[in-house]
Amino acid sequence: MADRRRVLILNRIEQEAIDIIRAASDQLEVVDASDLARAEREGDSAVTPELDAQLAQADVIYALKLPDRLLERSPRLKWLQTISTGVDRIMIPELCRSDVTVTNMSGIHELTIAEFVLMLMLMFVKQAPRSFYQQIEGRWKWFPVDILAGKTIGIVGLGRIGREVARVSQFFDLKVIATRRSAGIGEVEENVDLLLPLAQLHELLSVSDFVVLALPLTDESRGLIGQDELAVMKPSARLINVARGAIIDEPALIRALQEGRIAGAGLDVYLEEPLPPDSPLRRMQNVIFSPHVSGDIAAYDVGAARLFAENLGRFLAGEPLLNIVDKSLGY
C-alpha cells in the first residue's frame, strides 16, 4: 500500500466514473472524499480534520471546486486534474506559482457545445422564441423565417471548441471568420474562410451575423466584449456566449439589447450564476437563455473519468500528460 499513488476525488461523481478511475491501475489508491469536501464548503468545520488527513496524503486530486488552502493542506500534491475545461475558477495565485501540474478536460465538450451553438443559430433564424411566446400567450400570427446558408459566423477563440463550431458551420454553408490569439498574417485553418489575430476583433464583429464567444476567461479576455465592440456589430447580429460570462460587459450588453443596437443574444453563461431573478436578461424576448448547460451531457462523468484514467496511465508511466494548462496563459 505504501508505494501506491493516492488519488483523491473531491467532487461527487457517478459510481461508474469512480469505478473507471479505480480500474486505471492497481498502483493507485483512489479515495472518494467528495462528501467531506462538500460538507466543509457548506460550513461544517467538524469534517475538516478528516479532510485534512486525506489531503495530506494526496498525490493527485480530481476536482472541480477546490478546498481552501489546498496547497498548504496537500504537501504531496503533484498533479491537479480539473473536471472542467475552463480553469479560471481554480487558478489561484499560489497554484500558479507552484510546481503542481494542472490539466483540464479539453476534448469532451466540443461536439455538444458546437451542437448547442448550431441550435441557437437555428432558433434565431427560424424565430423559435417568437413561436414559444405565441404558444404561451395563446396567439396565432404568421411571420417569416430566414435561413442560415450564406450568413457569416464570427468565432472568437479558435481552440478545440471553436474549431468544432467552425466544422459544423460549414455543413450549413456559413462563411466562417475566426480569431485566434496567436494567428499570424496569412495563416489558414481548416473550415475557416478567414483567420484573424485577436487584435483584429472589430473586423470580425463588423461583418458577422452571429458572433460566437469560445475563448477561455483570462485577464486578457475579461470584459473583451464591451460597449465599443457591441457598437461595431451589425444591428441584425446576434451574440452567442458559450464561454464565460465575464468575457462580456453585461450591463453594456443589456443596454445594446434594450436599445436594439444588436438583434439578440444566446447566453449560456453569465457574470453571476445563477443569473439573479431581477436580471433584465431573463425577460427579454430577443434573448435565448439557458442555465450553463451547453457543455453538459448525461454521460459527462463517465467521459471525464475515461480521460482522467488515460492521464493516470501516463502519469504512472512518466509520460507527458494530456491537456496540461499553461499557467501563464490561463488555459
Q: What would the average pLDDT be, to the nearest integer? A: 96
What ranges have pLDDT less than 50 throughout 5 or more consecutive residues?
none
Q: Element order, helices and strands?
A: EHEHHEHEHEHHEHEEHEHEHEEH
CATH superfamily of the largest domain, by name, is: NAD(P)-binding Rossmann-like Domain
Arrangement of strands in the largest sheet = 8-7-6-9-10-11-12
Computed Rg: 22 Å
Strand fraction equals 15-25%
CATH architecture designation of the largest domain = 3-Layer(aba) Sandwich
Biggest sheet architecture: 7 strands, parallel
Number of domains: 2
Number of helix segments?
12
Structural class: alpha/beta
Shape field: globular
List the helices and strands and how they pair.
Layout: E1 5-9, H1 15-22, E2 28-32, H2 34-41, H3 48-56, E3 60-63, H4 70-73, E4 79-82, H5 93-97, E5 101-103, H6 110-125, H7 128-137, E6 152-156, H8 160-170, E7 175-180, E8 194-197, H9 201-207, E9 210-213, H10 227-232, E10 238-241, H11 250-258, E11 264-267, E12 287-289, H12 300-317
Description:
The structure is a single chain. The protein has 331 residues and is an alpha/beta fold. It folds into 2 domains: 5-108 and 298-317, 3-Layer(aba) Sandwich (Rossmann fold); 110-289, NAD(P)-binding Rossmann-like Domain (Rossmann fold), CATH 3.40.50.720. It has 12 helices and 12 strands. The chain has helices spanning 15-22, 34-41, 48-56, 70-73, 93-97, 110-125, 128-137, 160-170, 201-207, 227-232, 250-258, 300-317, and strands at residues 5-9, 28-32, 60-63, 79-82, 101-103, 152-156, 175-180, 194-197, 210-213, 238-241, 264-267, 287-289. α6 packs across α8 (160-170). The radius of gyration is 22 Å and the shape is globular. The mean pLDDT is 96.
